[in-house]
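Lab notebook, bench 4. We co-purified these components, and the gel suggests they stay together. Before we commit to crystallization screens, I want a quick structural picture of the whole thing.
Request: model the full complex, all chains together.
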Amino acid sequence: MSARSLRGRAAIVGVGGAGWGEAPGRSAIELLAEASLAAIADAGLRLEDIDGLCAATSTHAFPTLSVAEYLGIHPVFFDGTNIGGASFEMHLLQAALALDAGVCNAVLICYGSNQRSAGGRLVSLSEPQWHETPFRPRHPITAYALAAQRHMYEFGTTREMLADIAVAARQWANLNPDAFARGPLTREDVLSARMVSDPLTSRDCCLVTDGGAACVVVRADRAKDLHRKPVYVLGVGGAHSHRSITQMADLTRTAAVESGARAFAMAGLGCADVDLVMLYDAFTITTLLFLEDLGFCPKGEGGRFVQDGAIAPGGKLAVNTNGGGLSCVHPGMYGLFLILEAVTQLRGEAGARQLSKCDVALCHGNGGTLSSQVTTLLGSEATL
Amino acid sequence: MRPKATLGPGPEAQYRAFLRDGRFMIQRSASTGRYVFYPRVAAPGSGADDLEWVEASGLGHIYSITVNRARTGSYNIALVELDEGPRLMTRIEGVETAPIGTRVRARIVEIEGEPAVVFDIVSEEGRT
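Here is the predicted assembly.
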């Protein structure tokens, strides 16, 4: 038996979202619950059908306990793995394993945050690192700025190249009525925005929004009997590299190299097979690093790869078609939103931004300070 | 089984005590010769419990650096790679920022009542 045996054994059959952007007066668990109920309804299931639960938030120490109580369900399988924004891609692997083993039959993966309305600041359960604290790092941006500086130093990447990533994300957002940040954005706008942490300006940083998200996963054989077009889990691979940015061996090479290779191996696919690339863009630099580390361009070439609209609508590679964390939605832990956009595209329901061909989507989650990396390959029925 | 007896303060507390005495100490694994920072009970990777304290040379170079632009004032945050190999978070004193590769030397200062290691620039000579 190999990891390959999991390919296509589980499918996402329902997705839901709530309160993307601003949801004043609503709590994190309210947004999570509304998204969850929407996902269950989308799947054509009832709440009592849910017997598996995966959850992570920035505000709940025991998220599966909080969610199960709030919804009034009694799951037989639960997993509250929290590795930051990549948690939900890992939940997809846990769900696929539990379903395949017959431990449970329908897994809800869910998230909610009201960080924008609750104060407009990134909320984090993350504990400070004692050897970093005296120097007042402002994580996560400090760590990502350090990675960007190093990439510029080693490979000649420029601020203009990073800016083009933000511009491409905005152009996709302008095709998405659910994106929070819409309207014109030029390279010059990004460069002249307020410098937050050299070399990243406020426009190199993701949004701070509210939002809930959820999906429902079942075994592939059961998925065929439900009324929505199933989206199959073809491959998942995860990797850890560090907790503190001081311990990251090379700030220009993330563990996405390993997670991507594992996910592609399980799926039996390569970069050339991917129609849609959903990359965790907490900052412009992350899009660039993951394009390189997942193999879409050689190491060091990310900056030149993204120039001049290459990943914008009509470009050579469709990246972050919802507008990304940079322009669509980013309530603090963004990983599940990658999956929701992939499902929307694979179902052919993405409206003005719909890709003409979309059978394979890659979702790459990132957590902490480039610390956890989880890559997922999702596919339409044609990929089975 | 019975639990291992732990004698006295652990590596983190020992490191802080050395700093209070004006000494910047890092660990080295006797079996591999590899240096370790931040201080731990065993060498990462091998798990060898043969870490010994050695005086750091205090010399290194800037591996990466950013300037945090806050309304209350800007300050730099750097990763310095020691000549012995490990990296640590610190700040470069006396400048707003400095190029990656710049050679630096450690100095112990007090930050909010606790000793901490910061770095001064020793030459403009670049190095990767």
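Chain A touches chain B at residues 130-132, 134-138, 142, 145-147, 149-150, 153, 194-199, 244-247, 251 (CB under 8 Å). Worth comparing against the SEC data before the next meeting. The mean pLDDT of chain A is 97.
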